[in-house]
Amino acid sequence: MFARPIIWFLSLSFVGLMAAAVALELWLIALIPLALWAGYLIFQYPDRVVLGVVFCTPLSILVDVKPLGAAISLPTEPLLMGLLLWFGLKLMIDGRYDPAVFRHPVTLSLLAYLGWMLLCSINSSIPLVSFKFLLSNLWFVVGFYFLPLLIFKNRSKPHQFIWLYILPLTFLIVWSIVRHSTFGFTKQASYWASEPFVINHGIYGAMVAFFIPALAIYMLQSKLFLNKRSLLLPISILFVVFLAGLILSYTRAAWLGTAAALVFYILLRLGLRFRMLMGLAGVLVALFFVFQTDITMKLMRNKTDSHDDLSKHLRSISNVRTDASNLERLNRWTSGFRMFQERPLMGWGPGTYMFQYAPFQKPGEKTIISTNQADVGGIHSEYFNPLVEMGLPGMGLFLLLISFSIQRGMRYFRLQSDEFLRYTCLMALLGMVTYLTHGALNNYLDFDKTTVLFWGFMAMMVGLEVYHPAKALGTPPSIPNGEQGQIVGKIPAAPMGNQPIE
């Protein structure tokens, strides 16, 4: 009896609200219908929303939202916020998630890292900035690690994740190459060729590098992954397109990351174990300190600046005498180290480096591109960043997290007899190696473009080990037929009790 008047009242109220929003130019209010629709999808089909976010991420656009005092990536970050809210409510109401995931050393180290980030946010020099940073990290980790983990119960889902990112990224690469060509493929034009989708050529290069190993494996192991031999030619063409995108990104760190992945693969095939990898890293560090004077003198003789010529641009990687980009990195690192010396235990607070580093610069170390607002990137290192912002324990926990990821991935690749699963793990492992090498020279984990791949590939390796272990690793948990990899709004995970989250 009362349903029709209520519907009319709500409809007219909604129309009036939208009219007022347009008249007053309050455009955020006009987004309410879209927000309501997105909320419905998140609560009904979270698995599809997660995969939809993966698909949207390469082409998401960074928008400055002045009322929030921050930039936000659309449409991905609002959806990630919704997924975080949904996940939190599910855990509070049902209190259930797969205990096997929580027992995994990668997850444990991740939770410890987030816990320390919370403590450092409380102790931050700018608490508001740090809590914003913590919140964004939470929605990245939930949306790209915890929820995909449950999707990856199905052995084919990691490849769906990969292709949902590759397809829009292919469009982005073609877009960038076409725009770049209009300016003769110069280095300077590479900085903005990927705009408006990617604002930094370094981020663009890191995105592309992630998938070079995966596409190579799809070609070399076509019998495992391609249902039709006719697909080999398109994959090969795609590989060439990605190589062109990588080269024309003029991102030297991404080039190094790809080369490191190739060397890592060769060593892995030769029987490299994690402890051997750590020993090799230790030897290299020791040799650097023993011969640091000779190395420094050698580097100082290199005067090749970054250049349009690709060979000269590659040689400029080791130029720490005249190359402004390299010198600015050194300026940011030395400034960061001075900050660490002042606050070695808990750091200055997550996300605060760019606001606090200016007074720690020395005039003699500044370059022509130095600023006081951390323009042209932050501290330029994924490893220095937690050291400065979260102290020595923060850096230690981050290193522990990535060490567990690499160690478990290497172990799985060595022990798994199922070739399909084995090479799926290798795709994720080599993709991570490209970024972890890149991360020595840049830090992009606060951008959705790269963080989806960092946490997503990490989740792939953990998901394979938890749900599809090799016989030597134990028996996988029982997964009812027809439920593998489906989150039916309703996440089929073994609960913290015995029932799935529904």
Q: End-to-end distance, in Å? A: 34 Å
> What is the N-to-C order of secondary-structure elements (H for helix, E for strand)?
HHHEEHHHHHHHHHHHHHHHHHH
As a whole number of angstroms, the C-alpha radius of gyration is 24 Å
Proportion of beta-strand residues = under 5%
Largest sheet: 2 strands, antiparallel
Q: What is the number of E strands?
A: 2
Number of helices: 21
User: Percentage of helical residues?
Assistant: 55-70%
The dominant shape is globular
Q: Can you give me a brief rundown of this structure?
A:
This protein has helices at residues 3-23, 32-44, 46-56, 76-94, 99-103, 105-122, 127-151, 157-181, 187-190, 201-220, 222-225, 232-248, 252-269, 274-290, 292-300, 310-315, 324-342, 353-356, 384-415, 419-438, 448-467; strands spanning 61-65, 70-74.
Fold topology:
Blueprint: H1 3-23, H2 32-44, H3 46-56, E1 61-65, E2 70-74, H4 76-94, H5 99-103, H6 105-122, H7 127-151, H8 157-181, H9 187-190, H10 201-220, H11 222-225, H12 232-248, H13 252-269, H14 274-290, H15 292-300, H16 310-315, H17 324-342, H18 353-356, H19 384-415, H20 419-438, H21 448-467
Description:
Helices cover 65% and strands 2% of the residues. With 502 residues, the chain is an all-alpha fold. The chain has a domain at 131-276 and 400-473. Strand 1 and strand 2 form a beta hairpin.
